[in-house]
Amino acid sequence: MNEAIDLTREECERLLRSGVGGRVALCSPNGPYIVPVNHSVVDDAIIIRTSPYSVLGTYGRDTMLAFEVDQFDHERQRGWSVVARGRAEVVVKPAELDHIRETWEPRPWAAGARSLHLRVRWTELSGRKIGSGWDLAAALPVHRSM
Amino acid sequence: MNEAIDLTREECERLLRSGVGGRVALCSPNGPYIVPVNHSVVDDAIIIRTSPYSVLGTYGRDTMLAFEVDQFDHERQRGWSVVARGRAEVVVKPAELDHIRETWEPRPWAAGARSLHLRVRWTELSGRKIGSGWDLAAALPVHRSM
To answer: Which is a Pfam family this sequence falls into (chains A, B) (predicted)?
Structure first.
């Protein structure tokens, strides 16, 4: 059995910034939801595009969210996971939206109108890995230049 | 851009039962958390082992949980995700614990005492896929006999 090892803050940030998708958790009056999303990281905030009428758009604004990225190698029982938590706010200022679009606009794979930009400035960031002998950066599904 | 397509109930169940790990979301007084976990499916319930002192063990009992499994091919921008939601209860009866152990005991990869068995009988189950031309079952990281 493998010991889970805490990732450093730098490793967590690198993995968060290198990915293009993860899962966001939110609390609704009817309990928690998990929604898979594409994301980007602009400055020190996670940016997610969604529809104003979605579960995320309805219950995921002006409240705490948790966002997770991970990768698991089931055959070798190894992997890593990074979780960021912070308060989500809707980006409304045109200058801020322009900055996001110019820096790194999130690119959802799925069709659909996603006019709402949620910004999560993380106040908690932690990660763990299980199993050794692999390079976290090389294991990323997509290599993003930073 | 790809249209997201709803999975049938049968596809959702098959993917849920075929996996060995996912992510559970819970609501705490301090907002939502996401925790990656190994899981199993016994009868019509998700079984997760955790420590009584973890965030999940503290805030994830006798309350609604959301559990998600997915697989994404970032290069080809395709993937699927299944989310199950239901009320979590701690399994305490010895006969029920025996039944779980005999049927399919969850096998956490990470070391650590996980004496608490949480059971989530899902009351909501839904899934979506993006992108076509792949066999959902063949794409599973681990093939479990059912």
So the answer is: Pyridox_ox_2
Quote the CA–CA distance of B51 and A42 in Å, as a whole number: 36
User: Which residues of A fall within a CB distance of 8 Å from B36?
Assistant: 68, 70, 72, 79, 81
Contact residues, chain A, for B123 at CB < 8 Å: none
- pLDDT tens digits, A11-34: 999 999 998 899 999 999 999 999
> B143 touching A, CB under 8 A?
no
Is the pLDDT at A106 greater than 70? The verdict is: yes
Q: Report the gap between the CA of B64 and the closest CA in chain A (Å).
A: 5
Q: Which residue among A65, A79, A131 sits closest to B32, beta carbon to beta carbon?
A: A65
Check A1 against B111: CB less than 8 A apart: yes
Contacts of B80 in chain A (CB under 8 A): none
Number of other CB atoms surrounding residue B140 within 10 Å: 18
Could you confirm whether domain A4-127 is CATH 2.30.110.10?
Answer: yes
Q: Average pLDDT over chain A, rounded to whole?
A: 90
Tell me the pLDDT tens digit for each residue of A113-134. 889 999 999 999 999 999 876 6
Q: What is the pLDDT of residue B146?
A: 39
Domain residue ranges of chain B, discontinuous segments joined by +:
4-128
Q: What is the pLDDT of residue B12?
A: 97
Domain covering B4-128 in this structure, CATH number = 2.30.110.10
> pLDDT at position A73, please?
84
